[in-house]
Amino acid sequence: MSELPLAGPAPQNNRNDSHASVPTSIQNFGSGPQYTNTSGPQYNNTAGGTQITGDNHITAEYNQNYGGLQLNGGHQSSQYVVIGSITQIFNANPPPDNQNTPEDKNAKNASLDLCLQSLAFEQMENRRMEIKTGAKGTCEWLFQHKTYKAWATSDRDLLWIKGKPGSGKSTLLHYVLEKAFNTRSNDTIILSFFFHGRGSELQKSPLGFYLSLLYQLLCEIPGAFPELLSTFETRCSKRGIPNKDWKWHEKELLYFFESSLPVVLKSRPVCLFVDALDECGENAAVDLAKKFNSWFKDLSSDGLPFHIYFTCRHYPIVAFECRSQICVEEENAKDISIYVHSTLPNIPGPVQDMIVKRASGVFMWARLVATRIIERDIDRSVDWEGVDWPEAGWEKVEEKIGRIPNELSDLYKQLVESIEDKQEALKLFQWVCFAKRPLSLDELRWVMIVDPKLDGPHKLLKESKDAPGFPPDNEGMKRRFTRLSCGLVEVVPPSNKPVVLLFNKPVVQFIHQSVKDFFVERGLFMLDSGARSTENPKIVVGNAHYQLFRTCICHFAIKKVTQSSSTDISDLESQFPLLRYAAESWMLHICQSDSHEFPQDNLLDYFGWPSENLVQTWERVCFYMAPSISVTATLGKSLLHVVSQYQMKGLLQAILERRADQHNFDINVRDGCGHTPLILASKHGHIATVQLLLHSDKANIDAKGNINRKWHIKPFSMFLPDTNKVDINAKDNNGMTPLISASRYGHEAIVKILLNTKKVDINAKNKNSMTPLISAACYGNEAIVKALLNTKKVDVNAKDNLDRTALIYTSKRGHEAIVKILLNTGQADINVKDQWGRSALIYASESGHTAVVEILLNTDKVDIDGKDKMDMTALIHASERGHEVMVKMLLNTCKADINAKDQWGKSALMYASDGGHTAVVEILLNTDKVDVNAKDQWGTSALMYASKYGYKAIVEILEKAGALD
């Protein structure tokens, strides 16, 4: 049994700080200790390279900005320039004898550095640093709890710390985590993630969780992640800049974590702390909890200790298999007593005891009551609910405390009912609830001075700055927010750590997740007089997003912004602090308002449509200030492009309703990349938008001319689109049609909608001559491949610019199901070769896709000894890469020429010896058919290659087989 390191002297800190926020540059990467374990594989801190074989023509398809690295206003940061140089190093693909040179090590270390930066995000550590340390003497009970002690002394176990909202779960985890760091053994890897429902999207999503875990693990033991690093290198080479031209996806990050965990546990124990699992959403929380259990079940029993400690409310994880559970509110009465006595040392003991008892295990309740008492004690001019104390005596105070509701939500309701300026409070709470990310104090100050009842967006916002009561400084703003929110909103100071942030300023948020939950469910409805007159609870949220949109969109009508030049537009943020947020987020708020059924009838008026001036101003601001969306905000977009790309259904309907009044309206209008609205909607998977564009002459308008807000997705068989107006086969500047785009990005429903028109060109080609079938097969979109083939009109053997067919691509990438589908058509040419002379079998053998090779071999039609333009066979490629299973399969056919040579005279045995692939060498020699003394055109034999690189085991094997020096 192995006990968790939670006691004893703190070890010397010789670790990389895996909990640091994003550093300007990762220091000392790759210089940590080498971890070895005689019972398992050995790891080092260098990442394996990857060979790139001619996929560069797909770069244009990946780089949707079609502008390379110059998209951000023609400026490259040093980070992007470094990525460019690293890409060149990767593409150079140095020969084996250069793999250990200092230059190569530097390139790999730089790759690791950049990979870490691609995983990191700026708020990764914010929540952990926000959690306040508990009062002295609190939290210590946990270490004496029998369930905790059993968990800590087990080899592998899952511990669920559950409790009501505000019961102190996060403070408890924070305490245990700090204790673990201070007392851990040198080799224990401690991982942590704090979900934050009031934070940014990555702080409250599984995607952010896996990004953070992999970042921390990669800092600790990079040698365990060769596939992750290889994927990163390839994508930088082919797609461009991470988090700009491409992003990591949740499923692939989960794969990297799950595949690496057993490897890590071969050499080092791991302890994972996860806080506030419930704050990632109901479905995600349940799925993650199940994942936790599956990790323990799937791990082999021979690894080192693995522990998970997570906190979560009683809901949504109700029926969950976890033998180790501790309920916080049943254990924390002493901690609450310590907190109350330390916070209110001067009030009588009976009052303190009453607060502790009424709290019923909920720290937040005790905190709010204590705060109200403290504020009354400090400011005697304020009457605390009619209590005139101390003159009135503490009995009166006790009486008032007794009237405070026990439930947090009822306490919040009582506070909201006491708010005097409900309209101002509503605005504050709307923004704190629904802003895309927590706003800085400067941003929220600007929000509060903008009049939400503006008749139009063209009033200069700076006029509001002179409004009476506008707090000129941060301290005044803090006091105003505290007073306006009855203490339910707080200002969180910036991090003290040297992190790379968009802004390192104080941000405004609710004091607890339960406060946000209350306002979303009840509080906003209480404050919104307009919403109370309706019977639709969605209107409250829809109206909130509508108000946020209005505030955002006004910024692009400000004269200083519309008339700014490229040299001074970035300086506008100091004058208009919300400008960056407005550029990044107005689209989200329209979509959310629409999805919550808030009327969108007058939105076009805010854009001044049909004028495109406001959209063009937004594009320019994005180009210089919002790089996170600059790829999608390609210059030359119209409002019709924007609403199609983001599926703003209400706005699109409004445009189609009014287009009859516009003589020059063009539904096929193109942006700077040649995208039509239909191409954008198809690419981004927006089914309803594609439907409406195809039915553009049949917009859903009732007899009174009003837009019908009810959207229904019709069965495919009911579509009778008017494609005489919409160009269904339009191509963008890269030759992508709506069908190619939908096939490439895996949007099956849209592919079927387009095919159902009977007017789509099913064999259209983009600039790289990739058809819809090639695109779907290349990216593993099986259902789309089936849909295309079912038309009986698709050219199965169509070739792209590299002479590659769908079968070659899907074999190269290991999509075995699609390989079967293509072969089952009876039309696919199994031996067709691309411009490098490589067939499906060669690519599958080279890439190590065993299942694909087996499928191809079982046809009995494949040319096993087919050679590429370098005269390399499938066996030579498999031997070079060390794919021993593949080598066995090819040899078992009894058709593979074991002594075949490439254009340099190298055989499979030479390549295996050259690469240090001992198992492959043994397999080849065991056939008794291999020429062990064959030499290449330089006169080098297999034995010479093995000797040159110091592969002693291979040298011995070859010598026993009769190899001569």
TrEMBL record:
<dbReference type="InterPro" id="IPR036770">
    <property type="entry name" value="Ankyrin_rpt-contain_sf"/>
</dbReference>
<dbReference type="Pfam" id="PF24883">
    <property type="entry name" value="NPHP3_N"/>
</dbReference>
<feature type="compositionally biased region" description="Polar residues">
    <location>
        <begin position="11"/>
        <end position="52"/>
    </location>
</feature>
<protein>
    <recommendedName>
        <fullName>Nephrocystin 3-like N-terminal domain-containing protein</fullName>
    </recommendedName>
</protein>
<keyword id="KW-0040">ANK repeat</keyword>
<dbReference type="InterPro" id="IPR027417">
    <property type="entry name" value="P-loop_NTPase"/>
</dbReference>
<feature type="region of interest" description="Disordered">
    <location>
        <begin position="1"/>
        <end position="52"/>
    </location>
</feature>
<feature type="domain" description="Nephrocystin 3-like N-terminal">
    <location>
        <begin position="137"/>
        <end position="313"/>
    </location>
</feature>
<keyword id="KW-0677">Repeat</keyword>
<dbReference type="InterPro" id="IPR056884">
    <property type="entry name" value="NPHP3-like_N"/>
</dbReference>
<dbReference type="Pfam" id="PF00023">
    <property type="entry name" value="Ank"/>
</dbReference>
<feature type="repeat" description="ANK">
    <location>
        <begin position="734"/>
        <end position="756"/>
    </location>
</feature>
<dbReference type="InterPro" id="IPR002110">
    <property type="entry name" value="Ankyrin_rpt"/>
</dbReference>
<dbReference type="Pfam" id="PF12796">
    <property type="entry name" value="Ank_2"/>
</dbReference>
